[in-house]
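My main concern about presentation is that the manuscript never shows what a single data entry looks like. Each protein is reduced to its one-letter sequence and a matching series of backbone shape codes. For the editor and my fellow referees, an illustration may be useful. For illustration, here is how one protein appears when written out as sequence plus structure tokens:
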Amino acid sequence: MGNPGVRRVHAALVVAGHRVARKRVWRLMRAAGLRGRHPKAFRRTTIHGSSPAGAPDLIGRDFTVGGGAGRRGCGNITYVKTWAGWAYLATVIDLHDRSVVGWAIADHMRTGLVTDALDMALARRKPEPGVIFHSDRGTQYQCHSLKKLVSICG
């Protein structure tokens, strides 16, 4: 149960058959110096490189796409807490139909995670030159191997 707060302690007592008010649980926990666990504050995960490139925003924050599939895509990395630690998921989404066309999951947030997701997207969609790929300005999206991959496909 970890460090339960007043609501969880109260609920457990009610399930166990004890009639007690939530405010009484709060007072008793405060008197005993017990506190619930609070989530940690927001942690910044997009870290710019030592010399971030000033890439233009070709999409202009307009994520609606006309003209068919495979013209614009976007990518991001998200993280999921698992029993074994953090798992990082990189996705490539086709903005035309909002489908995930490439993805990769790993226990690290290195460039290989992003390039694996892009490789899958390229293999599945086989886009024509001129595709626009939008991402945040994290270091994984600004590396030399990714720039080489993007220049090959467009």
Summary: The chain has a mean pLDDT of 77.
